[in-house]
Amino acid sequence: MATDTVPPDATVADNADGYQQPQVDVGSLRQLLDGRYVDVREMVRRNLSDYAAVLDDAETMGHDEFRERVKDVTVAMAATGQTGLGFPEAYGGGGDIGASLAAFETLALGDLSVLVKVGVQFGLFGGAILQLGTERHHERYLADIVTGKLMGCFAMTETGHGSNVQALGTVATYDADAQEFVIETTSEEAGKDYIGNAAVHGELAVVFAQLEVAGTSHGVHAFVVPIRSDGEACDGVRIEDDGLKMGLNGVDNGRLWFSGVRVPREALLNRFADVTPEGVYESEIDSDNKRFFTTLGTLVQGRVCVGGAGINAAKVAITIATKYALRRRQFEATSDTEEELLLDYGMHQRRLFPLLARTYALHFAQEVVAAQVHEIFSGTVDEEIARRQLESRAAGTKALGTWHATRTIQECREACGGAGYLAKNRFAALKADTDVFTTFEGDNHVLMQLVAKGLLTDYSSGFEEMDQFGMVKFVAELGVETIIERTGVHKLLERIKDALPGDADGWDQDAGLLDPDYQLTMLRFREEHMLSGAARRLKRGMDQGMNPGEVFSRVQDHVIGSAHAHMERLVLEAFVEKTQALPGGDQRVALSLLCDLHALCVIESDRAWFMEHGRLTIQRSKAISREINSLCRKIRPLAGDLVDALGVPHAMLRAPELVGPVA
């Protein structure tokens, strides 16, 4: 238990209503956070501690040497079994997709070059062969991939086509006489870029290219292409090193170009389409667009992993900053001659505790997404609508999780003053290594457009066919009210009226703020209103005869705003559901404090919107701010235990001046 106490004046004020300070059982709370995969997460924590020296190596080794070090640690991690948990047991894996997600998220508590190297090798490269290939590919490659013996790349992104994967410039043309595909980079901008494992270690690449058979293009497909043999580039393959990056310099990112590279017909990853020896294209999915999105949908695990990694990196930052604030004193206290602990200052609490609460909230939201991935990819659930909803929720959670990491790491660095600027105290690496999380596995704003598309089309039968312009036309033709009815949120409007009286005279402004129904109702109203506003603007633009592209551009901020509102509501719902599922007791009280703080901070951060739309009076807005301050004071005595429950190994904090020496 943390021994620090709330300042006397605050204790009296907050205990006036009979409030009793809960006692946090760190071990029990950590088990709750670890969820179903307690043993897996503990195994990864032990492995991280065994290789804690890699955090020092990142700063003391040269560029090339550190790349080799990261590769060696990656292979060593594979030997423990933690990186292969998602692969079939027949090939040396664990056969448990949910366990693999838990292992990867936990790995983000350590060096992030190792994390990304693991993600490239086992998630992207290995995952593509597992999910897009068939038995012939599995038998040939998976066992060696699982052990790290065969290193590979995931070559999708091109210099000229980042998020617009359907427009890739790499082409694979089938030569029926030779029964081979000819891989060609059609322009310099069509070169594959930022490809992990490409610069040094990769031997094979899963290359995404436009498939042409008998003069007909069938859209983007994936091929297994050798890129390196005995350390040298294969014939027709040009490889360049991306060089030093802002961070993640233990990962050998590189560029790839292909000139007349021939691979056998069997190199096509043919789960969803194949080409016969004679040159006949075959697929059970008639539409090129639907086939494309089905292909990408099988790779959603990578997006889920990045979101989880961002949330776990935030755990490291908030743990360091909170522990530092429990040790560091600044300025003389009013009650005695000893200087005050940083965490006893209200502003410091205001800086850190909302971030701590949001970290918990996003952890539980990520737990929901990971469970959905496990169900769908394990075959427990096999409904098309469920897959579309997963893609949307995974996209939104990844965006919120990685934005949160960026914000949290920066604020926590500042909260540690000059000490936080020292490389040995971990923030330099955290900032540099996580910054790219907001743009890989999908730029966050593009991902939020995917969320909005699902909301506005309700995953209609033509969902896969729609680009952003198709979505505009769909909304215009369907009618706004139909869209709103499909969300189900409109049914809550009567409850909103009851929860938010319009006349504040004589009304207790503090009543109801800590009621989860009130908090969720506020976020649901915002979501419904923003979604209906976006839909109406889209329809109005089309009714005025504007080009769909121009309509979308003008309304894009409203579209993305509705997606944000939707995701914030889902995050809070996950937190509320987790908290309310607990039996009464101290653990529930402690989590409720964090849940209330998170909810009220979300409302406070957008209070101007709620006031503009008549859902928040000036008096209640002030009451929310007072309540947030009160919640921070109540959380203060629990802070040390709440960050300990996040489960960051002490060796991974690597901040002796901030949190104390490693035992």
* CATH class assignment of the domain at 444-644: Mainly Alpha
Number of strands: 15
Total helical elements: 25
Radius of gyration: 26 Å
Q: Please identify, by name, the CATH architecture of the domain at 444-644.
A: Up-down Bundle
Strand content: 5-15%
CATH topology (level 3) name of the domain at 444-644: Butyryl-CoA Dehydrogenase, subunit A, domain 3
Helix proportion: 55-70%
Low-pLDDT ranges: 1-13, 493-497, 499-511
> What composes the largest sheet?
6 strands, mixed
Could you give the distance between the termini? 18 Å
Task: Please give the structural blueprint.
Elements: H1 8-14, H2 26-34, H3 38-50, H4 54-60, H5 63-80, H6 97-107, H7 112-132, H8 135-147, E1 152-155, E2 170-175, E3 180-185, E4 192-195, E5 204-213, E6 216-226, E7 228-229, E8 232-233, E9 237-241, E10 254-258, E11 261-264, E12 274-275, E13 281-282, H9 288-297, H10 300-325, E14 329-332, E15 339-341, H11 346-377, H12 384-415, H13 427-434, H14 444-457, H15 468-478, H16 480-487, H17 493-499, H18 516-543, H19 548-580, H20 586-605, H21 607-612, H22 618-635, H23 639-644, H24 650-653, H25 656-659
Parallel strand pairs: 1-5, 2-5
Antiparallel strand pairs: 2-3, 3-11, 4-10, 5-6, 7-8, 9-10, 12-13, 14-15
